[in-house]
Q: What sequence folds into this?
């Protein structure tokens, strides 16, 4: 059976034209805003991948391999804080107390140390930041102080069972000299991680910015998955 040709009345034509203008105008506006956002991100001085995971998940190990492979700059929030606390200042005493008790150091201190380290790395624009942000307050402070300077590309999430991380940390504690590589401090750090850092990972998951890698496998397998994420960056 032949189909009846579809026709519009003279009254319908203006309505169709108006609808087309609205749809096309909305699409054009969305495209414009998307391009504007990308241009703004390009103007930012730094591009960041946060590296998160529980204590002992292998953040430092994978960052070292990425530095070797891609020439990225690795900044460890924990290392920067430990370096600062060795300076013997009042700030150093405060940082030392927080770390020993497994608590999170005030965000303003950590963000200040991270920004100073980035500014010292002249000519470098891509950074791996591991162990930060550790809680929503850290993230708010980062956004307030760094949004005009840095774009968050993604979060590399190294996921490993707690029992695996515990054994790694106890083994590391035999030679690391770190005062927080003991059973009591480790348990406090696990509790802090679950309560404070997991919400950060979930926040970025909602934005589609999390690169999750299962980190309780042999080193080569974990590294291969990590490299695959970064080879296009």
A:
């Amino acid at each position: 059976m032949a189909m009846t040709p579809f026709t519009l009345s003279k009254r319908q034509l203006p309505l169709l034209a108006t609808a087309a203008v609205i749809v096309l105008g909305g699409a054009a506006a969305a495209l414009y805003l998307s391009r504007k956002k990308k241009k703004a991100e390009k103007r930012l001085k730094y591009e960041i991948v946060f590296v998160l995971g529980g204590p002992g998940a292998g953040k430092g190990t994978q960052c070292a391999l990425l530095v070797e492979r891609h020439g990225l700059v690795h900044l460890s929030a924990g290392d920067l804080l430990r370096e600062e606390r060795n300076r013997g200042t009042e700030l150093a005493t405060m940082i030392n107390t927080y770390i020993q008790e497994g608590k999170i150091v005030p965000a303003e201190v950590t963000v200040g140390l991270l920004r100073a380290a980035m500014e010292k790395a002249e000519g470098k624009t891509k950074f791996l930041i591991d162990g930060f942000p550790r809680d929503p307050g850290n993230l708010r402070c980062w956004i307030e102080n760094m949004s005009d300077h840095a774009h968050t590309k993604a979060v590399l999430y190294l996921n490993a069972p707690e029992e695996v991380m515990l054994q790694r940390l106890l083994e590391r504690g035999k030679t690391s000299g770190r005062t927080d590589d003991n059973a009591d401090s480790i348990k406090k750090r696990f509790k802090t991680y679950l309560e404070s850092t997991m919400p950060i990972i979930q926040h970025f998951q909602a934005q589609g910015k999390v690169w999750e890698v299962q980190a309780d496998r042999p080193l080569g397998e974990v590294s291969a998955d990590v490299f695959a994420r970064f080879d296009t960056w």
